[in-house]
Amino acid sequence: MKQAASEFLANKRIAVTGVSRDPKSHGANVVYKRLKDRGYEVVAINPHADRVEGDSCYPDLASVPGRVEAVVIGTRPDIAETTMRECVDLGIGQVWMHRGPGAGSVSEAATAYGREHGVTVIDGGCPCMFGPTADGGHRMMRWVFGLNGNVPRHV
């Protein structure tokens, strides 16, 4: 898991799906802002918004100008498979499905589809729990959520 997280976070242009216009404690917005604050070029994806967190927002990954290197899925699990299919179609090889204390964005169907098509899928946890994006609170959550299976041990 640590190696997969490190490889994911080595990408410099990352899209985050499910970023909300109302950012109050929304997991995707937390990830978006943290990546941006740590110097990543982050792209917001939300089909119902033109701007999020003061930045341009795109309705889907195909609408993003230029190449996205990796994707954080921060939507409901029932949307994750559609996003994973779009990642495969666009040749995006690394996807992280966000998961904190609840079900998060993890979809077994999306995970299976991505892996069948050569995508490295991190199915749980949060990019803010690892490497250059981590803080003390997220490191503690990584430990706790690792105990209950919300952070995968292997990818």
UniProtKB/TrEMBL annotation:
UniProt cross-references to SMART domains, sorted A to Z: CoA_binding
Top-level division of the source organism's lineage: Bacteria
InterPro entries the UniProt entry points to: CoA-bd (IPR003781), NAD(P)-bd_dom_sf (IPR036291)
Segments forming domain CoA-binding: 8-99
Name of the protein in its database record: CoA-binding protein
Originating species: Nocardioides agri
